[in-house]
Specification:
Elements: E1 2-6, E2 10-19, E3 22-32, H1 44-60, E4 67-72, E5 78-84, H2 89-100, E6 111-121, E7 129-138, H3 139-151, E8 155-161, H4 162-170, E9 176-182, E10 187-193, E11 196-203, H5 207-218, H6 222-232, H7 242-267, E12 276-280, H8 289-298, E13 300-303, H9 310-316
Parallel strand pairs: 1-4, 4-8, 9-12, 12-13
Antiparallel strand pairs: 1-2, 2-3, 5-7, 6-7, 9-10, 10-11
Amino acid sequence: MIGINIGSKTIKVVELEKNGASFSLVASGVVGYSGTTVDKMSEEKEMASIAQVIKKLCVEAKISSKEVVVSVPEPLVFTRTIKFPSLTDSEIASAIKWEAEQYIPIPVSEAIIQHAILKRSDTAGPDGGVIVLLVAAPRIIVEKYVKVVHMAGLMPVAVETELIALSRALSPIDKTVLLVDLGGSSTNIAIVNHGLLSFSRSLPVAGDAFTRAVSQNLQITPQQAEEYKKAYGLSPSQLEGKIKNALDPVVRLVVDEIKKAVNYYLTDEKGEMPTTLVMSGGSSGMPDMISALSKTVGMEVALRLGLQCVNKICRKILT
């Protein structure tokens, strides 16, 4: 089984092999990519170009399988929880598309809609009923991702959101955690309750915004700013704290959104307070980023980058 993530900066591929009740890593690879994103592609030659990049990456990484699970970027999907009365599973399945009309900003006929039951309570009163996770994506965007995978000579068997994939891979099943994926173009925030994605939000501020802040503040090129960001991050002792000072306003913006997400989940969703913040994504590896978030968010922070996640994925995927 292959997993492919087509990001705004890189394309990543990983192959896992099932061994009994668990999975082991067979191969992996990553390549930089700065072309048009899949969702904005309109011409066949653009899709053929990125498909060729994926095909070459798979060859160089010695990927042998053809079956693929591909992720769709979080800003392109609509995810939210809905509360139903005490209906059966089949009744919810029949009602979900009608309910979806009021929650997604595109016609239901143009969307691919899936759902999962998060919680069922037979208690009388306002605490009773069924909590359902609704996930919807524009059909045309999903079809573009599927087409690119086909053009790369692979067989797509599933399409899922980035946060659902990360939730399964990184979140423990015995507690509630806050998951923050700090990527290139977006910061994706999720609250995962005992292994189940229960809340998500996407913020269009992440690594690119950090780089712009450093570039503008220090009057240097974006390429130089990227290197300084990676090398010095939020360290107050490096370069007289100039990089930290440039980054601080953007980091505060991300922290404020994280706090808003948690507050909404606790007050409106009546959820359980997360005990740990799990960080992933390339931008979360900046120096002193973890300590800064731990202080400002007020909870323990765990960092999960790259292949650090593989052992957890191997134990949990498809089990």
